[in-house]
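Subject: Protein record for review, amino acid sequence with backbone structure tokens
How to read it: Take the token row as a discrete description of the fold.
Enclosed: The protein record, placed directly beneath this head.
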Amino acid sequence: MLWTVNPDGSDPRAVGGAQRGWYIEWSPDRSHLIFDLEVDGSEHIATVRLDGSEYTQITEGDGFFADPAYSPDGGSIAYAYAPGASVEPDSASLWVMGADGSNARALLSTADAGSDWEPVYSPDGTKIAFTREVEGPQGITSAIHVVNADGTGVRAATPFADYVEHPRWSPDGQTIIYNIQYSPDLDNPRNGVWTVPVAGGEPTSLLPTDDKFHYFKPVYSADGQQILVGCAHRAGMNEDLCVANAEGTDPRVLIETADYENHGVW
């Protein structure tokens, strides 16, 4: 289910009472949410207001339509797509469409890579960051990539490694935050939240997995002063939401329940 909560953790509310969904993002004007959910064996993209009104499914037909994100002007949506009725496809490619679902088109050819996921526009709308997976001699690896909003100029922003995922831009567009979730060995020091300069440079560990939590799916606050992260308890792996300073300091629990919290956005 989709929920909202105040930045201090108070007043949690279920969206519309019982709205299902994943990979949630706000619309640029903060009037509604966009997300994906399973419908009749396919994954589809929909929007809804916080009170549950104006629920609108904006993709149709069999296929995997997921990981939606608006352009800053609200005119376009980038998403991951794979044909066929499947909620867990082996591979996907990046597509874009109008905010109403019209004019859907491939942004990158499926021949470009094994699989592209989790697109998100830069604050100025000129670029899209995304996760690219490839299969090689060592198995499946992934890396954060950046592409111009018109589909040109694809480049890797991080090295390929196991379980690199979930890029999000800093508000000034200068860095990308992401996580590494090497679940078979969470004691590996590479696990946790990282940043990398968009212009190029070495990734930096920001919020490493520690004895208590594994941190994942980071996103900056609008002022860039804090990050919201998923925090999975190492004992039991129950997932809550935490916040930390933008430098990765002072991580603290925001939402703690017996359920699983995931896909947080400011």
User: Anything to note?
Assistant: The CA atoms of residues 17 and 113 lie 40 Å apart.
